[in-house]
Amino acid sequence: MRYSGLGAVAVLLLASNAPAKPTPAAKLLVPSGKWAVEYAKEMCVLNRKFGSGADEMLLAIKPAPNSDQARIMVLRNGRSTDIRTGRAGVRFSDGSAPAYAMASSGWNDGKVLTAIDLPRSSLAPLIAGGRISIRFGPGLNHEFAPTGMAAAMQALVTCERDLLKGWGMSESAQDAMADMPKGDANGLFKSDDYPNKLIEKGIQGSVGALLTVDATGAVAACRAIESSRTVELDVLTCAIIRKRAKYSPAIDKSGKAVPAMIYYRVQWMIEGGRRADYSMATDVPPPPPVSTAR
């Protein structure tokens, strides 16, 4: 089954003309624990500890079922000054890099959690036994050297199948699927969609929405299964998707158009204070910001 669907990110970016600084070499971390699959309420998460002592970090992978979206999370020791949003530097040991890597971080009780959204398909070198380098902010510039990724990802797929079944998509329906719904997210979310009152308060968030796309390609249902913790952003995300998203329907192995459930993540991010659009589709590289204030 091919993952298509579409994903989107609504981002507010600040253009900068500061000269680029040399990037120091990433610090290598090796596993210090075993892979574990967490059967969370609305998502499956694969995680493992790396490093030790002050350098101990938790690397987690949270893919979106029936989608080419994935989120990598890194939990580490850090300071409140490490909180930021923007593009992360992600590269694999085979030299490849994801088409997009949008990141945000939060701080609580001495720990910094960095979440990076990127295409699930870009993780192929990691699953094949490679390494991943992640650079974001002053405290995260590390190379992770996991082992046993293929078996761990298979365990994650098993969790995802159970999750989809719980959402109402039977195992037989999953097995019958040949192609997921296809759509183009370019321009789906616009900078003017971000409510001014939330910008003024600095309110950001990530919304994970579960969509039901019917046999005609219409979005028949949308609900936020991973809340941004801001009701207005949750409601607005689904309202925009229902109004603007256009799909070709899912196709089963007999060639028939069928309903399907897909996951759709939207990041509402503010950086600097000037607006820019940044929409990304899961099946094409994202366009550059089209309305960056300079």
Q: Please bin the fraction of helical residues.
A: 10-25%
Which class of secondary structure composition applies to the elements? alpha+beta
- Which parts are unreliable, with pLDDT below 50 for 5 consecutive residues or more? 2-18, 273-294
- Which band does the percent of strand residues land in? 35-45%
Topology as H/E string?
A: EEEEEEEEEEHEEHHEEHEEHEEEE
Distance between the termini: 43 Å
For the biggest sheet, the summary is: 7 strands, antiparallel
Here the CATH topology of the domain at 27-152 equals Immunoglobulin-like
Provide the CATH top-level class of the domain at 27-152: Mainly Beta
Number of helices: 5
Average of per-residue pLDDT values:
84
CATH architecture of the domain at 27-152: Sandwich
Strand arrangement, major sheet = 3-4-5-6-10-9-7
Shape: globular
Q: How many E strands?
A: 20
Rg from alpha-carbon coordinates: 19 Å
Write up what this structure looks like:
By secondary structure, the chain is of the alpha+beta class. It has a domain at 27-152: Immunoglobulin-like (Sandwich). The protein contains 5 helices and 20 strands. The protein has helices at 124-127, 149-167, 171-176, 196-201, 231-244, and strands at 10-12, 27-29, 36-39, 44-50, 57-63, 69-77, 85-87, 89-92, 102-108, 111-119, 132-136, 140-144, 177-179, 182-183, 205-213, 219-226, 247-248, 250-252, 257-258, 260-270. A 7-stranded antiparallel beta sheet has the order 3-4-5-6-10-9-7, covered by helices on one side. A 4-stranded mixed beta sheet has the order 1-20-15-16, covered by helices on one side. The longest helix is centred in the middle third of the chain and has 19 residues, at 149-167. It is globular. The termini are far apart.
